[in-house]
Amino acid sequence: MKKILLAAAMLALVGCGEKNYEPHALNEETDICQICQMTVAHQEFAGQIIEKNGDYEVFDDIGCLVEKLARDDQDEADVGAAFIKDAKTDEWINVFDATYLYDKEFWTPMNYGVLVFKDATDAEAYQADAGYGKLMKFDDLQDFKWGIHQ
């Protein structure tokens, strides 16, 4: 019994050390994309990186967020979380776990043409309705050339 209580106490302490990162509310009048310097006028495409020290950066398109993560000056160890808006629900979702749907015909603020979905089934349904689009995961975005940026 003592071993079970000790194990439970250790798990509780480990859980206390983990930080819960939450996305920040956006303000269309003051939030500016860290890459392209455009205002975040279309919040349904917005993204943000929350650093472990509590700082955060806002992006107006998934392409800008991915570009920031790929930069040499962005240390992965500093990133606590990264969020993007779900194209179906408009809720903040984890960038790294999302499913992406690309086509140069999809409109996004910076013409990257990438829509983001929490659930792969939602992305597949959107793809079927549109009749086009390429399904992707986060790792596929690293060297991908999108939209007018091709």
Which secondary structure elements does this structure contain, and how are they paired or packed?
Elements lengths: L1 H16 L29 E5 L4 E4 L2 H9 L8 E7 L6 E3 L4 E4 L11 E4 L2 H11 L3 E3 L14
Antiparallel strand pairs: 1-2, 1-3, 3-4, 5-6, 5-7
Oligomer: single chain
Number of helices: 3
Which bin fits the share of residues in helices? 10-25%
Element-level helix/strand string: HEEHEEEEHE
Shape: globular
How many strands appear in the DSSP assignment? 7
Rg over C-alpha atoms, rounded to the nearest angstrom:
18 Å
Task: Output the strand order for the largest sheet.
Answer: 2-1-3-4
Overall structural class, as computed from helix and strand content, comes to alpha+beta
Low-confidence stretches: 1-16
Strand content: 15-25%
Mean residue pLDDT: 86
Separation, N- and C-terminal Cα atoms:
62 Å
3D structure, described in words:
This protein has about 150 residues and is an alpha+beta fold. About 25% of the residues lie in helices and about 20% in strands. It has helices at about 1-15, 60-70, 120-130, and strands spanning about 45-50, 55-60, 80-85, 90-95, 100, 115, 135. The strands form two sheets. The chain has a four-stranded antiparallel sheet. Strands 6-5-7 form a three-stranded antiparallel sheet, covered by helices on one side. Strand 3 (about 80-85) and strand 4 form a beta hairpin. It is globular, with a radius of gyration of 18 Å. Mean pLDDT is about 85; it is low at about 1-15.
